[in-house]
Design a protein that fits this description.
Helix content: over 70%
Number of helices: 10
Order of helices and strands: HHEHHHEHHHHH
Largest sheet: 2 strands, parallel
Number of strands: 2
Strand order of the largest sheet: 1-2
Radius of gyration: 21 Å
Distance between the termini: 31 Å
Structural class: mainly alpha
């Protein structure tokens, strides 16, 4: 296929992906009040009381549409991944193409597991840590915009990081990673994991370890994934 035809195909893949996000956002907006209640729920189980406030006139409007877009992205993620896979599929061998649909499924599943892990573990511990820093008569009154921005960053970041086994699978398929390479640089990878955990989580050691431990386990699992891919190729 000529280069311009590749660009045209890429353009349509992107258009379909954006359209899927818009449709998913509309669906999410129909349940936006339930989504907001679900995201606020972790504040009810911390020891120090928290009060969320809307500090601007258009605050709730922007929050609802922002959460709808994030929800639309999450709902559309399987289709986005599928469009990416279809775009690169002409360059794959027949034996590699059979992994496309399972790869789309497991990439979405890994992302959801990361989001759920963050919601159930990271968010409650982070809120508990920050709310416990209040002293005296200082009340924990937070802007609802910053609250949603904070937990959305945690959940989306965790979902992306939990894609590690899927990324290792892809790189192992094309020969960029091998089990021996990953075992040899295991110590270096652990240092990178600590930096990533410190970047995503709040600045406290508990949250850092809560993120780092699953990442270490994911890395070890990824070595197994790379080993299976290498064995099947050989």
């Amino acid at each position: 296929m000529p280069f311009l035809d590749h660009l045209e195909e890429l353009r349509w893949r992107l258009i379909k992906s954006v359209a899927a996000i818009i449709v998913g956002g509309m669906v999410a907006f129909l349940f936006i009040d339930d989504i907001i209640a679900l995201l606020i729920a972790p504040t009810e189980y911390i020891e120090s009381p928290m009060k969320l406030q809307v500090l601007t006139v258009q605050g709730m409007f922007m929050i609802k549409w922002g959460l709808a877009i994030v929800g639309g992205f999450i709902l559309a993620l399987p289709l986005i991944t599928y469009q990416m896979a279809k775009f690169i599929s002409p360059g794959l061998h027949k034996g590699e193409k059979k992994f496309m649909m399972p790869l789309v499924f497991f990439s979405y599943l890994s992302f959801l597991i990361g989001v759920i892990f963050s919601y159930k573990v990271m968010v409650p511990f982070s809120l508990q840590f920050f709310s416990s820093l209040g002293t005296g008569d200082i009340q924990n009154n937070y802007s609802i915009n910053y609250y949603f921005s904070f937990i959305t960053w945690l959940m989306m970041g965790s979902g992306i990081i939990f894609e590690l086994p899927v990324v290792v699978f892809i790189f192992s398929m094309i020969g960029l990673l091998t089990p021996s390479f990953m075992r040899h640089y295991r110590r270096h990878a652990f240092i990178v994991i600590l930096f990533l955990s410190a970047f995503i989580t709040p600045p406290d050691p508990i949250s850092l370890m809560l993120m780092a431990i699953p990442l270490v386990l994911l890395y070890e699992l990824s070595i197994g994934v790379s080993w299976m891919v290498t064995k099947s190729k050989s």
